[in-house]
Amino acid sequence: MSNRRNTWxxxxxxxxxxxxxxxxxxxxxxxxxxxxxxxxAAPPMNSAPITGPLTASxxxxxxxxVMPAVVNIRTESKQRAQDLSEFFGGNDLFDRFFGQQEPRExxxxxxxxxxxxxxAGTGFxxxxxxxxxxxxxxxxxxxxxxxxxxxxxxxxxxxxKVIGHDPLTDSALIELTQKPDHVLPEVxxxxxxxxxxxxxxxxxxxxxxxAHTVSVGVISALxxxxxxxxxxxxxxxxxxxxxxxxxxxxxxxxxxGEVIGINTAxxxxxxxxxxxxxxxxxxxxxxxxxxxxxxxxKITRGRIGVSVGSIAREAVDExxxxxxxxxxxxxxxxxxxxxxxxxxxxxxxxxxxxxPVSSRDELVRMVxxxxxxxxxxxxxxxxxxxxxxxxxxxxxxxxxETNTARxxxxxxxxxxxxxxxxFGITLQNITPEIARRLRMENRRGAVVxxxxxxxxxxxxxxxxxxxxxxxxxxxxETAADAQxxxxxxxxxxxxxxxxxxxxxxxxxxxxxx
Length: 513
Fold this sequence. Notes:
Blueprint: H1 2-28, H2 36-39, E1 45-46, H3 58-66, E2 70-80, H4 81-87, H5 91-98, E3 114-127, E4 131-135, H6 136-139, E5 144-148, E6 158-166, E7 171-176, E8 189-190, E9 200-205, E10 213-229, E11 232-239, E12 251-253, E13 259-266, E14 279-283, H7 284-288, H8 291-296, E15 302-303, E16 306-309, H9 316-319, E17 327-332, H10 337-341, E18 348-352, E19 355-356, H11 360-368, E20 375-382, E21 385-392, E22 394-395, H12 398-407, E23 418-420, E24 425-429, H13 432-437, E25 446-451, H14 456-459, E26 467-471, E27 474-475, H15 479-487, E28 494-501, E29 504-511
Parallel strand pairs: 1-8
Antiparallel strand pairs: 2-3, 2-5, 3-4, 4-7, 5-6, 6-7, 9-10, 9-12, 10-11, 11-14, 12-13, 13-14, 15-22, 16-17, 17-18, 18-19, 18-20, 20-21, 23-24, 24-25, 25-26, 26-27, 26-28, 28-29
């Protein structure tokens, strides 16, 4: 009997040890199941058309249903006092704006290098576990985040932390680290792609600290470009529902009370700092699809290393196109995926991964939504002929990209030698001094020394310090070469220019007067 017990004991021990070893080996080889955070799906959305009459109680019912899921967010961050004072135009204006004196060191010396700055925003609960969606700019750089809930005492606040954030959609996911003793409500998502100009919407937020304020309006426009980073923009919804400072991060709702946008910015003029009827919201579909990545704390996007522009109406025929669909490559970053694949300034991208490209913005969306490491066939027009180029997509490093763009400064050039009539530019040969200033390895090309205000070149974005290295298919080595080729273009014709700017080639189209 004793031997039998020992046999069962050792068999059980061996089985447990084997199972543990298998788990260790699987985890080392990357075979273990992914965590729930990695496999969390995007929350569901309701894509059914909105039907039914608008009644006297419609907006009241929406506010009553959604308001409990909207939260007020208060943040604290450290900023240099001197920077703030300079931004607001000196001490007097700073004091009037904030209603308080800036702290100074004893003895009337210089004020401290840093001071605590408080700000307010809005968010909304998307998960009963305490996950809240808001704007990135509401919580960016915050050292402390406090959240207050609907229906509770004003002094009742809960601590929260940032889980993930994304500057390109101005979105952030935060989580309550302190939980209330009751079940949290949560919002429902609608389909932002169904919204059209004229559709009714409601905004709920914390404008000027006035908690849970409701405003109503309509969708004014779709796909407004909104700058979110250096050289990058997002397509946003425009609304006339009142949005003011403090509304940032709050929900924009349809008539069913479903989130179709995140309120993020307003347009103001010099006379008025509050709402003037032009507000912007990030479409909910854009952020909803990112939520699984936001939960992991890292957003992964694709990049190929080009800047692209729209196709000028007058350039359609000369590109060999039937219409303005596509995106023209303006510049290619050195050592980028596009550079390695052979993409050139002046190429027109008309297809990405088997799908047609209708515009510059659509191409940008296609690229950033492509997983890094993916090999993509790209259809381009070059010299009026279509060809296919294969590109392996890189991973976007937004911070590095922004720093590079800001560091590409230009030095002013030397006096004028050649004037190009019809384009509004003056050109000069590249002297050794100019080459040194512009950090050019060779002296081939024509440097732009002046751009006439309101001229075709100015409208095309040309700047002093640009170096023209090719006009059409003809390379140029001197200012006289460039002047000769530009003179051959008839009035109303389009010049296709290769320009070196900030150390890399850029494609520019200029229509001659």
